[in-house]
Amino acid sequence: MKLTTVAATGAAAVGTAVAGGLAVDPDGPYYRNLIKPSWQPAPTVFPIVWTPLYVDIAVTSAVAADALAAQGRHDERSALLRALAVNLGLNTGWSWLFFRVSRPWFAAAECAALAVSTADLVRRVGAADRRAGWALLPYPLWCTFATALTVALARRNPVRVIEGGPVRRLAQRVRRA
Question: Does residue 177 lie within any of the structural domains?
């Protein structure tokens, strides 16, 4: 793995984390007022999970990109890097749709697309370097969990009130846990 490649994929992952993190507000009224499922992780769990995932994305993508370049598979390398860019864009988009736009159903659909994109990224990375593909496997698993969680949040919080942005409940504790 070349230092320049991992620096580029690392910068992309850090940029994604920062851009998405700017949207996240777990202490804000919107998120605090959501009816959450019983299996919702504590807010402190998310940075603990995402930090190593971003490192994993950066390293495995760099390993795969360099392996493809070394094998002369330049079209596949370009396709991998495009898929990575789309994936990281989707990754950032979820935070903005969910926290800033306050649209959990849109965020759920977007998160499902992210999970599919992530599975495709694992496929592409694995085709270049089998071990890197296996190492990236936690990413689509987490995104699939995030999709299920976002759907659960959307189901429990059906009405969004525009004034102030918080979700109002149609009925108290609808579809609880």
Answer: no
